[in-house]
Design brief:
The chain has helices at residues 6-22, 213-216, 282-285, and strands at residues 49-52, 69-72, 76-83, 90-92, 98-102, 107-112, 119-124, 133-138, 141-147, 152-156, 167-171, 192-196, 199-204, 223-228, 235-239, 244-249, 256-260, 291-296, 300-301, 307-309, 320-322, 343-345, 351-356, 370-374, 387-391, 403-406, 423-428, 434-438, 443-449. It is built from three helices and 29 strands.
């Protein structure tokens, strides 16, 4: 056995360190010295702390008749501020009131946040599945725009309004279940909108899971259109986006971004032996294809229903594989010739509401990142989604990988039957916190910093 002389060993180590310092640790002509790593700033922490969901007296009907816990980042809490059955998309009014759509009932509910349970009242009724709500100013006048199943309408808004003023139609004759070829069946009739300057963007989702009849229709379904905010003809902006429920404008670059529900029941598209070619195997379709979170450009084609993004290439700009139901051997569309999506989200997680966490009250660590409500899959053998995720903004104005922001809506993460909530929309409020709607629990939460 060799025994080291400790004083000698220390001297040799010191001489080695001095030699490395003298040669500059990788200076001219030194190809072997390890580079000094550049420190990177720590990102925002992911959800890791279990906290009780705070429920004011009077709001504690099921599922809050028993104690519920959520998992959030350190230093955050989650409280219920209102109960709104079937709550979907939200908009914070200029005066701080919160408007919440209930498309299943044709209603908009006004929520007046305060200490404890918020006051609520019916703000509007008689809507045709009114879904997305966006405040937008035209010529100095504030309007509330409403995405209805067959049109986009708007009404003037003034601070303190407790009911909707008379509304007018901005865009009419949007495709819905009344189309003869659909025979009363439109799987994704709800409409979503966003604004950039005086241009309105409208998502017209598919009626089907993956039928080319959608993309061959006029107007194409599974696409995004533009029109002036005062109304006018629709212009096709981008296609191949099956159901872009989340539409938002990048807070730094002004790019258009979308969060998209992709197809279900995908057949295995490869001949590599992992699964039989064209097999419908839950071991594959449970985790494929990814749900897109992507920058959307004018003229872009994002593949559906002919090409599907694949996790084979990682989460950033993943490659496409041909859809073997609709585009075997790429006979219809060359999947290498279309726009790649920016980021892959978990398959079947059902991204719905998309916002950017903006505002001077938002801590710098979180500011301008993307927040997305993952509603959760309905037909997976194992749950996917059922959470709110956050994607930090990178220095290049792209987005880092998604990390959990609010989870715990499943008491057993492996059992869909254990769900007590399903997040839908996520929007920042004037205090720098986040409102989260939940159409399963019929609740509006506030994620706040303690």
């Amino acid at each position: 056995m060799v025994r080291f002389n400790r004083p000698l060993a220390r001297l040799l180590a010191l001489l080695s360190l001095l030699a490395l310092t003298a040669c500059g640790g990788g200076g001219d002509g030194d190809d072997h010295a390890a580079p000094t790593p550049t420190p990177t700033p720590a990102g925002p922490p992911a959800a890791s702390v279990s906290v009780p969901v705070e429920v004011p007296s009077g709001l504690d009907a099921a599922p809050f008749s028993i104690a519920r816990n959520a998992i959030v980042p350190p230093g955050f809490g989650l409280r219920v501020i209102a109960r709104v059955p079937g709550a979907r998309f939200m908009a914070e009014a200029p005066n701080g009131d919160l408007l919440v759509s209930r498309p299943g009932n044709g209603l908009i509910v006004r929520v007046v946040p305060g200490n404890g349970a918020a006051a609520t009242n019916v703000f509007a009724s008689g809507l045709s599945q009114g879904h997305d709500l966006v405040f937008h100013t035209v010529s100095g006048v504030d309007y509330l725009y409403i995405g209805e199943s067959d049109r986009i309408s708007r009404a003037e808004y003034m601070d303190g309004d407790i009911t909707l003023r008379p509304r007018s139609t901005v865009v009419d004759n949007l495709p819905d279940s009344s189309l003869p070829e659909l025979q009363g069946s439109y799987g994704h009739a709800l409409k979503n909108i966003a604004f950039s300057g005086s241009t309105m963007y409208i998502s017209i989702a598919s009626a089907t899971n993956a039928n080319p009849s959608d993309i061959l229709a006029n107007p194409k379904r599974g696409a995004i259109y533009t029109t002036p905010d005062i109304g006018g003809a629709l212009t096709l902006y981008a296609q191949g986006l099956r159901n872009a429920e989340g539409l938002a404008i990048h807070p730094v670059t002004g790019e258009r971004w979308a969060a998209v529900n992709h197809r279900d029941n995908i057949h295995y598209p490869l001949k590599d032996g992992r699964f039989p070619y064209k097999a419908l195997d839950p071991a594959y379709y449970n985790d494929n294809p990814p749900e897109p979170f992507t920058q959307v450009r004018n003229g872009g084609n994002y593949g559906w229903p002919y090409c599907n993004p694949s996790f084979e290439g990682g989460l950033d700009s993943p490659p496409y594989l041909p859809d073997v139901d609709n585009n075997e051997d790429e006979a219809v569309l060359d999947c290498s010739a279309i726009d790649r999506i920016s980021k892959a989200l978990p398959a079947h997680s059902a991204p719905l509401g998309l916002s950017f966490w903006t505002g001077s009250a938002v801590p710098a660590l979180w500011r301008n990142g993307a927040v997305i409500g993952l509603h959760g899959c309905w037909n997976c053998t194992q749950p996917r989604g059922y959470k709110v995720v956050y994607l930090p903004l990178r220095p290049d104005n792209g987005f880092a990988d998604p990390q959990d922001l609010v989870t715990g809506f499943l008491t057993d993460p492996a059992d869909i039957a254990s769900r007590w909530g399903r997040p839908v929309d996520v929007i920042p409020n004037r205090n720098g916190n986040l409102y989260i709607s939940d159409d399963y629990a019929g609740a509006i939460y506030e994620l706040y910093r303690k």
